[in-house]
Each structure stands twice: as C-alpha cells, then as structure tokens.
Amino acid sequence: MAYVFSPPSQASLAVQGSDARFPVRRIFCVGRNYEAHAREMGNDPDREPPFFFTKPADAACDTPCTIPYPSLTNDLHHEIELVIAIGKGGANIKAADVMDHIWGASVGIDLTRRDLQADAKQTRRPWDWSKAFDLSAPIAPIKPIAEVPSLMQGRIWLAVNGKLRQDSDIGELIWSVADHIATLSEGMTLAPGDLVMTGTPAGVAALVEGDVVTGGVDGIATLEVTIGPRR
Length: 231
Fold this sequence. Notes:
The structure is a single chain. The strands form five sheets. This protein has a six-stranded mixed β-sheet, covered by helices on one side. The protein is built from four helices and 17 strands. The protein has one domain (about 10-230): Fumarylacetoacetase-like, C-terminal domain (Fumarylacetoacetate hydrolase, domain 2), CATH 3.90.850. By secondary structure, the protein is mainly β.
C-alpha cells in the first residue's frame, strides 16, 4: 500500500521481563473514580455512572524518563493511576468476563494542564487541550496479568522529591476495574492494545521544573519521571 508520506511508528510500551513491547492503540481515562479526589476537585462523590476521556496513543511514554514542562500552562498537575492493558477486544463485555480481556497492568501518571482544564470546565468545552498533550501519559513497564497479585486491592502512591503526596489503595476505586471496563465496552468496541487509566486518588498538586516524581501500585509496578525545562 502506498502512503502520501511514511506513517508514524507504532506507539508502544515496555513489558516487564521481556524485550517484546506492548503496542498501544488508544488510551481511555476514567474520571473521578476515587471519592476523596472527587471531593478535592469540588465534585459530588456519589456513585454516578463512570465517564471517560481519551489521550492519543503517542502520549504514552516509557519510564524512567524526563519530560519537558509542557507549553501553554503554569499549573501542571500529577495524577497517579492504575493502568490496565487490554489484550482481547470486545463489545458489551460483562463485568464477570472482563479479566479474560486484560493482558496486563501497570502504573502511570495522567499529567494535566490544570489551568486549561479549569477554563474548559468553566466554558463547558472538551478537556482534550488539558489532558491529551505530548508525553502526558508516562507509564511503567507493563506486568503480564498472570503475574499481577490483585486488581482489587493494593497501595497506590506518588511522591515528589521524596515527599509523599498521594497515598491510597486501589480498593478505594468507586467503580472497580471490572465495572468500568464493562461500562466502557458498552460505548466503544475495545481492541487489543487499548489502555485504560483508572482514575487518581486524592492529593493531586502542581509540579515545577526539576521535580522528580516517583510512584507505584504495590505488587504491580513503580515509575520515576523528572520534569525538565519548559518547552
């Protein structure tokens, strides 16, 4: 097949214990999936149906890494999240069957240009400009699901320059992994290579140039991201 220019290379992430890489197709993100975070953002934490936004596949990047402080913002925030890697596609997946569709799991950071997000909320515009920028999804190497101890419980945490900022448990998810992936599959046909970032606990805050961010989900993965000079 001929193209008018060479297509971009396949976005991918490292896999724990392997030289093979996980090809990334799409990145779905679940909003407000921890009660304390919903409260700190000024929202009602009642268990309303989950909602989703997206990032482009090439927003994903391996860790450890250095990411330049992004343009157009003066309020870059960290959001640590459990990441689910889909290995088998499907639509209208039942919650009881979700585990059959999961290839692996990891931990990532949903970097957010919070000032742009606040403007989008105020003007009732999409969140894309605040969420879907370059390198906005640093993710640790993915652990195959057979080696993952649990997707129901486990400490999730993030520190900046060694000071703990986010500290919770994935058992505090408002919508479990099975529930929100089943809901997602009702509106989108999932495919191998899709990633689902499952929401962040309380403690989100601003980053500045030179910050070293560490975080993880116990038993699954850890990461390190350095915030470099502004682009």
